[in-house]
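To whoever is on call:

I kicked off a structure prediction for a single chain this morning and the downstream step that reads the tokens threw a length-mismatch warning. I double-checked the sequence; it's 154 residues and nothing unusual in it as far as I can see. Pasting both halves so you can look.
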Amino acid sequence: MKRTSFGTARCPVARSLDEIGDWWTLLIVRDALRGSTRFSDFETGLGLAKNILSARLRKMVADGILQTRPSPDRADRHEYHLTEKGRGLHMVLVALRQWSEANLFTQGEPITRMRDKRTGAPPRRLVLHAADNTPLAPEDITFRMEKFAADPHG
């Protein structure tokens, strides 16, 4: 089956899924956020076949999610590091994690939890806020077609 490309879609969700929509990409980003940098780290952590991992890492470098750097240990090897674009996926992973915690685990089941390194406390749940800091629910949002301009608020 040929994969449909959403690379030119007008919907930002569809366009982002075109680049990061397979689970391996997000799991590689997850592991990179936890400190993995070497091919062997990703291979061991994910249990992914070398050819699939190699292709996925190449695509992520081409897409600007990862960059390669020479390994400090061996000049003939390189490491993978997240770019700012790749680090921006941190919030996406936190949102997925929090959704999963609320919907896919049962009482007493083992789970890996996020903790603040300084305090040991879990982070607050993500909440979408209006410009005036009022929480927004799905029914409070509308969509309209506009010309793209970079968000002045970041």
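Update from on-call: the warning came from a stale cache, not from the record. Cleared it. Sanity check on the structure: Helices lie at 12-20, 23-33, 39-46, 50-62, 84-87, 90-103.
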